[in-house]
């Protein structure tokens, strides 16, 4: 993405912080052409303290942002591009990831609990069991969301119940809650010395504490989860000046001091804006750590009957109307590559995965359901677990690589089917973006499994672009026009289906069968007997293990008893009569 020295006289530039689950990036765009001029990326470490737990260090996340800004500013200087031409900065972030920090010390009180984390499963089960008819959609009329481990409210509740520092900070009125956007904006605008504590409507709508109709925190929802409203950030639009950057002047990136942070969107909303899906019916699918299909539904929220979420798509200005979207969320997409690499050690990276899969061109009947964090849309089944089935002696790692790519495509097919049912108007092509779209085999498989064309933009950084567009268009900045006639033409590549629909349907039916095998694998909710005591059989796998062990012991005891009787009888037969 290098720029030549002839670009010294570039017009206004806009930057974006893209803080994702697996990496942080800082990118700089030309506001007139949407051209990416320079960027830098830093990987983020994830920790897994216990099974199902996923955490990240908020300090490392913040430091990665500073590093990306510094390195990008160095690159711009080398390209002879004036950093002072940057007129605004946007923020886009991994959604739902939850943290609490001390506003007096500026220090996080615990690691950030990542959106994938499953530690709150028992809390979710208890909440659902208390609702009329055990209805996981009990709060959906306000939030657009099912009660799930996915969203921030239950993660925050866990922090309050299990981390003494968080509990004490709330009692002493020192605690601040936020998703990653809130943490970054607060730190970058001064932190404990006057930092701005805010979030935007798209991130707020993923907490289960936000009313998507009133567009504000809901006192009844906060009471339901026992969350004090004083710790919540102020909710703002996705495009307005929140505060000004404050960076050490001795750094190259110190030149960014005083530049407004004026755009904020959750990553999937940012991708929707970056793909310019501004019309009712426009949709995009982003392939990152997870996979997220959003369809713009206009100025009215549409409630799904088929397992999708209703979410705020964007609100591009304080006085502008909010736009809503239907969303299909898949927990594991790109994360399956990381699992095959780090956990199984059968690939070195995504490029090898593509080569292995291409070498066989089929899974040979092997199906992989990567339900590592349960299943999200359209099932919302936290008890599901990952399975690989259909194995034979012929199956090898290349077939497994192909099955892993197919799994991403099948999961997208499930949420696309649900979206078509909810809207009544089937999509005739799918716009895509995200890191996995560089895998051409995956894109072709996706077209084959959906039986519709897949369209990939030539500039893949649509999430960061969306945040930059929101920042540049903000009142008081106004260097990026979002009028349809002013939007840049996007060049793209189209992948057409290459297999017949019958084969696609056969493979999809087998996938659905595999999904059913993954269901109801795990439960954490204790089963009590009549005396209120917990049963040892509350975990199904543990119950089977213990029951099987007991039967084996009884059987062994019975067999040994029979052998003893036989020996005694034999002795009696040979005993001399006195």
Question: Which helices and strands appear, and what pairs or packs with what?
Answer:
Elements: E1 13-19, E2 23-30, E3 36-43, E4 55-56, H1 58-78, E5 86-93, E6 98-102, E7 112-113, H2 121-130, H3 140-143, H4 152-162, H5 164-171, E8 175-179, H6 180-188, E9 198-200, H7 201-204, E10 210-211, E11 216-217, H8 219-225, E12 234-236, E13 239-244, E14 260-266, H9 267-274, E15 283-287, E16 291-298, E17 309-314, E18 323-330, H10 335-344, H11 350-360, E19 367-369, E20 387-389, H12 397-423, E21 430-433, H13 440-450, E22 454-457, H14 462-472, E23 492-495, H15 501-518, H16 540-574
Parallel strand pairs: 1-5, 5-14, 9-12, 15-21, 21-22
Antiparallel strand pairs: 1-2, 2-3, 4-7, 6-8, 10-11, 13-14, 15-16, 16-18, 17-18, 19-20, 22-23
Helix pairs in contact: 4-5, 9-14, 11-12, 12-13
Structure description:
With 578 residues, this protein is an alpha+beta fold. Helices cover 35% and strands 20% of the residues. The protein has 16 helices and 23 strands. It has helices at residues 58-78, 121-130, 140-143, 152-162, 164-171, 180-188, 201-204, 219-225, 267-274, 335-344, 350-360, 397-423, 440-450, 462-472, 501-518, 540-574; strands at residues 13-19, 23-30, 36-43, 55-56, 86-93, 98-102, 112-113, 175-179, 198-200, 210-211, 216-217, 234-236, 239-244, 260-266, 283-287, 291-298, 309-314, 323-330, 367-369, 387-389, 430-433, 454-457, 492-495. InterPro entries: ATPase_NBD (IPR043129), Carb_kinase_FGGY (IPR000577), Carb_kinase_FGGY_CS (IPR018483), FGGY_C (IPR018485), FGGY_N (IPR018484), GK1-3_metazoan-type (IPR042018), Glycerol_kin (IPR005999). Its EC number is 2.7.1.30. Pathway: Polyol metabolism; glycerol degradation via glycerol kinase pathway; sn-glycerol 3-phosphate from glycerol: step 1/1. It is found in: Cytoplasm; Mitochondrion outer membrane.
